[in-house]
Amino acid sequence: MNPAAKRRWPRSGLETTVMGFGAAPIGNIFRPISEEDSAGLIKAAWDAGVRYFDTAPMYGHGLSEARCGQGLRWYPRNEFVLSTKVGRLLRSRPRAEIDFTPWVDGLPFEMRFDYSYDGAMRSIEDSLQRMALEHIDIAFIHDIDNYTHGPQQPAMFEQAMTGAAKALLKLRDEGVVKAIGVGVNEWQVAQEALVRNDFDCVLLAGRYTLLEQDALESFLPLCVARNASVVLGGGYNSGILATGAVPGAKYNYAPAPEPVLERVRQIEHVCREFSVPLKAAALQFVLGHPAIPTNIPGARSVAQLDENIETFRTEIPSAFWAELKRRELIREDAPTP
Fold this sequence. Notes:
It is built from twelve helices and 14 strands. The protein is an alpha/beta fold. Residues 19-325 form the NADP-dependent oxidoreductase domain.
């Protein structure tokens, strides 16, 4: 699979490369990345043919957006697709008073949730200022799921559907952005958002992976019916599909339970039989679905980025996917590359 190959989004006409650049790591998540390394990552991605970049105000409290803008500023603007998000506004505050967790050495801005119409409009304007780029292609409403808000989720979701969504629909109609949608951790929330509003796309962090295919029940068929494109993040289920079933492996940001470890061991056994790296299977599997044009794995170094590129290029025989289905390790109705 060529990571630089492009796929067209049916509703918006945008074209994104099969491999995108997930810019959360250059927001200094968990540990810092230097300015030089951040710039090197973006240049290496560009040199490899990657032409889709995803960022957000949340990532490093604006740092990821600032670095994306700096790294992409002098490339032809019509040659790449850029997405960012609304739902959090940043306000200047002394660095010592800010809780950056899980970001390290972010920009000196405090974050607050705001899914209102005015908040979304302000967020897009602020993002354009931080990045100093001509326009944003895709705007997602960020984190309106239970994973983020818990008991407050219904109220936050409702505000987003009546406030931020109205703002993004207006911006799309005016040509300020080309595509709009939601960026969430739960497909059920994404499905409800698609039912409620005329969205073009969804950024789904995990929840459709080599380990999880419940989204095939209703969400992904709805995307196909609506011609809505799905950007897939979190394809390693936060770690275990990259590391394998090793001690301490993470599954959806927590230690993997034994049933998950055992399932991954069985998948790894099939991988060894066919000489297919587990990471390659994880990254390429999701791209078999017709609603998913791009996968955006993160990278903290040029070496990791190069590994992701080679992982996409790995040839995987159709017999490998057939064997996973035969052993009931992936769903029978799961489309495969």
